[in-house]
Specification:
Layout: E1 3-4, E2 9-16, E3 22-23, H1 28-31, H2 36-49, E4 53-54, H3 68-83, E5 92-97, H4 107-115, E6 121-126, H5 131-144, E7 150-157, H6 177-181, E8 189-196, E9 211-222, E10 231-232, H7 249-254, E11 261-262, H8 267-283, E12 292-297, H9 305-314, H10 328-331, H11 338-349, E13 357-364, E14 369-379, H12 418-435, H13 439-445, H14 451-477, H15 484-497, H16 500-510, H17 525-538, H18 546-571, H19 580-607, H20 609-633
Parallel strand pairs: 5-6, 5-7, 12-13
Antiparallel strand pairs: 1-9, 2-8, 2-9, 3-4, 7-8, 9-14, 10-11, 13-14
């Protein structure tokens, strides 16, 4: 649940960008391409990210011109100057950054020292993009609790020192794609916000006397237990060793442990997570897309604008593009500082009106976080007294007001499925998170998964897959006359999948499996429970709830399996023929889910929306729990007959 605020106001905002803007054609003077591969990556990235200029705190010789603490101090001074406030008013300083100038002490303390500031409370948040929001939340909570009347939140980044040509010399300039990529994406800068309890006056931004900007709430959620590391500094390319595990810093650098990397193949999952969290905020009444006047979204590349926009549109929660605002093109991507720099420049250049809302969204790719803030403009003379903080009630909306397609993104959802798809999305969101934390998936993502582990998994999975077409046919046979079109559709689907278990068994044998007969393989306890449940349900009259089971099972094939497949291939030295089943489902389950939507529409036309939706959602929830049990037991060795 978001942290709501009743007495926190944004009094002023500032930023500091070092040096002159550096256009694309002058980047080579600061971070020259290392080799021909780097030059190709540079052209491709700059063509996609939409950044035209950025700032560096190093000069063309790689010499530091401003430390990171100096960047942060510059933003704080600009913030205080614009608000006409003395530093002496600040009693809490919260900083956010991916790294200061020192490993110790904390960054906030180094900034305090740079400012020669009076004694105060300090908090240093170490992270990546969402660290700036964490600093804002920390400062706001100090005010909300009454411990402070004014607090400063600052975020600053200085990645340019990591991108100098000299830092790559130890590896002969031959580095992997993931470490090349970010050199052309990130730049330096800092932003700062002065928060107060509102007693010091109005919002002194962009010539707007008589107005103040209230921070209504902040919401952050991390999914670090679900997915592998996406963006990191300090690990080798294979993530097997940390920089402190080497005999010296020179050895760590030569091994690539001090290269900043991002696994761009994982990024689609970040936006999927972010949109689900956003949908939940809408559903629970924290934000209304129709009321948002300004949407400030931190995206690292303009390439991701249509991705975010499309996901929001599919959820029927879109904010029109004319309400979006970003300064990525001329300020660049400054990581944790981006949202503060963006908010400050927006406030300096836009005219605000009472009642307008500013909604901020920050996805963090480090190990996946999503952060959100909502601010609202108030007229000072209309504010009589601060109301008592009350958490909003759950939204009461019509089905068509909040519609989210299944997390597998079929092209379009039929009308009237809003309530069901919203509930299924919540079930899926929880199930997916739990699957990614099972021992099996943890082994795979941590690259501790060996061929014997793969064979053990296949031995338990083959007999489970074998049952799929059987319970589907049994369920189709249990459908009465009004559902005969649906029975034909399920029968066709079962026919397409009836031989899948043979493909999986062949993969098992290609990987070195020694069991010769499928009949000798055994399901684990979770698989037995799932199988019994599905067959038992299929034998009942008109078991339309089976569509909920298909939703979870097919969704696993389309969303979870494709994410595991590259990790499996990286860990297991096996021939391509050992992964045919996983490849097939990753490519085809999206079409199956399109057919699933058609089937649900048929059922609702016969059964009625409320009754059908309840059966489908309940079965999806039970299937998710049992499928998760199957995942939990996979690491246990099963005796074969």
């Amino acid at each position: 649940m978001p942290v709501s605020f009743n007495r926190v106001y944004l009094e002023s905002a500032g930023y500091f960008m070092p040096g002159e803007p550096v256009p694309n054609d002058r980047m080579d003077a600061y971070i020259a391409p290392l080799n021909r591969m780097s030059e190709r990556i540079k052209r491709r990235i700059l063509a996609e990210n939409g950044i035209l200029t950025r700032h560096y705190a190093i000069d063309t010789e790689g010499v530091t011109q401003h430390t990171n603490a100096q960047l942060a101090a510059g933003a704080i001074r600009d913030c205080l100057r614009r608000g006409g406030a003395p530093l002496s008013r600040v009693s809490l300083l919260a900083s956010g950054s991916s790294g200061g100038d020192t490993l110790m002490p904390g960054f906030a303390n180094m900034i305090q020292g740079e400012l020669a500031a009076q004694p105060m409370e300090t908090h240093s948040v170490h992270g990546i993009c969402a660290a700036g929001v964490s600093a804002i939340q920390t400062a706001a909570q100090g005010i909300e609790l009454g411990a402070h009347r004014s607090a400063m939140a600052v975020a600053s980044e200085m990645p340019s020192r990591l991108f100098k040509r000299s830092r790559f010399a130890a590896r002969g300039y031959e580095t992997d794609f993931d470490s090349h990529f970010l050199r052309w994406m990130l730049s330096d800068g800092a932003g700062a916000l002065l928060l107060s309890d509102g007693s010091e006056g109005s919002l002194a931004l962009a010539g707007a006397p008589g107005l103040r900007l209230k921070l209504k709430w902040v919401h952050q959620r991390a999914f670090s237990g679900d997915y592998p590391v996406c963006m990191q500094l300090g690990l080798t390319e294979d993530r097997a060793r940390g920089h402190l595990d080497f005999g010296s810093w020179a050895e760590a650098e030569a091994a690539g442990a001090l290269s900043l990397r991002q696994d761009i193949r994982l990024l689609p999952h970040l936006f999927d997570i972010g949109i689900h969290e956003y949908a939940g905020l809408v559903r629970d009444g924290w934000v209304d897309p129709k009321r948002v006047d300004h949407f400030l979204c931190h995206y690292s590349s303009e390439k991701f604008i249509p991705v975010v926009e499309d996901l929001m549109a599919k959820a029927d929660l879109a904010i029109p593009r004319e309400r979006w605002w970003s300064n990525l093109a001329w300020r660049g991507n400054t990581g944790a500082a981006s949202i503060l720099v963006m908010l400050a420049e927006f406030l300096h250049t836009r005219t605000l009106k009472p009642g307008e809302q500013i909604f901020c969204y920050v996805p963090e790719s480090g190990r996946f976080m999503a952060a959100y803030m909502l601010l609202e403009v108030e007229a000072v003379d209309s504010v009589k007294a601060a109301p008592v903080a009350v958490a909003p009630r759950a939204a009461s909306v019509a089905d068509d007001d909040v519609v989210i397609a299944p997390p597998h993104d079929p092209a379009a959802a039929p009308e009237g499925l809003g309530a069901l798809l919203t509930e299924l999305a919540a079930i899926w969101h929880d199930y997916r998170s739990r699957v990614w934390r099972t021992p099996l998936v943890r082994q795979i993502r941590e690259r501790r998964f060996a061929v014997p582990d793969y064979l053990n998994w296949m031995e338990q999975w083959v007999p489970q897959v074998r049952e799929g077409s059987l319970w589907m046919r049994e369920g189709a046979a249990s459908l009465s006359e009004p559902y005969q079109v649906l029975a034909s559709l399920i029968g066709m689907h079962a026919g397409e999948e009836q031989n899948d278990f043979n493909i999986l068994f062949s993969d098992y044998r290609q990987a070195g499996g020694t069991v010769e007969r499928i009949e000798d393989l055994r399901r684990n306890p979770g698989g037995e429970a799932l199988n019994a449940y599905l067959h038992g349900l299929a034998a009942t009259r008109d078991p339309i709830g089976l569509l909920g089971a298909i939703y979870i099972i097919e969704g696993t094939g389309q969303r979870i399996v494709p994410a595991l497949l590259p990790l499996l291939k990286a860990s297991l030295k096996l021939p391509p023929d050992a992964f045919r089943f996983l490849e097939y489902h990753g490519h085809n389950d999206e079409h199956h889910l399109g057919r699933w939507l058609t089937a649900v529409e048929m059922v609702m036309a016969v059964e009625g929306q409320a009754r059908a939706a309840r059966q489908i959602a309940d079965t999806a929830r039970h299937t998710a729990a049992l499928y998760l049990m199957q995942f939990q037991h996979i690491t246990e060795r099963m005796p074969n007959a």
